[in-house]
Amino acid sequence: MQYSDAAIPLGHAWSSPFAKWQGSLAEVSSLxxxxxxxxxxxxxxxIDPDVVTGLTLGWTVPQPEIFYGAxxxxxxxxxTGVSGPMIxxxxxxxxxxxxxxxxxxxxxxxxQLVVATDRTSNGPTLTYPAPSRQGGAPxxxxxxxxxxxxxxxxxxxxxxxxxxxxGEIGATRDxxxxxxxxxxxxxxxxxxxxxxxQKRYLVPVEIAKKKGSLVLDxxxxxxxxxxxxxxxLPPAGPDGVHTFASQTHPADGCAGAVVTxxxxxxxxxxxxxxxxxxxxGFARVARSRMPQAPVPAAVxxxxxxxxxxxDVTGVTTHNPFAVNDLYLSRETGIDVExxxxxxxxxxxxxxxxxxGLRSIAELIETLRERGGGVGLxxxxxxxxxxxxxxxxxxx
Length: 395
Description:
By secondary structure, the protein is an alpha+beta fold. The protein has 13 helices and 15 strands.
């Protein structure tokens, strides 16, 4: 989808730090997290809730009271009378939510608030009544673990998808370990000077508790992935080439952005510049070939934006497996060293809904460092699907 007048004010895309699975945020509802992070982000950027005309809420893991999620979140943020769609598209949720907001702005203007939030920790176990089964026993599903373990269309797991694509392109264990170590080195650059780069877009979490408060101001659960150490790890499965280092880990977090017209974005940025949203794209590939999907999604987004790979000066990806970026590089010619120069989900973790929006915020800040340019975010989602966004930092 192409956009003619949709933009993010520069500095108005943000993310919380990501917490490890069953870590600091394990017992915090993702809606409560969204209130804490978004209200802080809005205050820090002098965004008056009264200017918000719509809210798009992205999530993939049900939480208590999620049925009322969007209007309740808006009201708790002070934007009473405002609501909008709730979007769930697995790991492509952030792109889908930005697409919905950009389409609304392109059509009617206004100021749209996009919030993506998820807690993979303590995912719910759903019980479906089944009176006709033996003894009337219900059918149960663990929302997070069962989804990790099996794609019902393909009948295989996520790791099986990664291994299948690695086998088809002849990816070796050494290549994947080398790429993983590179991604670790890139992430550490964002930690330099007391995390100066990350602090450009990370919003600390602070949630009041009965005794004191919960504070999280840096990523939690990130494991070092130096080449020598990860080279000694056993494969994650029999005869596999991925290890627990060359795949991401589940996490909890929240991210957000303001989407409005170019002129309004320029005004809200205080003259700092704008991030024009040029195009989005989605794609499906063969069953259980998820690591391939970011490529046709990127092609679709670039086509919609009227751009080519040659126009792109910055790339971030959602890469739950190291093979994702290797495949993307081989198919597009983009050097793996030119992707994710300050980090990626392979290292900082994957809360699902907000993962893409965090990487988009990093992409924006990377281009900002370079004085502007065209950026591409692309990532996979759920079995055989991918989503991508093309943007331009300008003015």
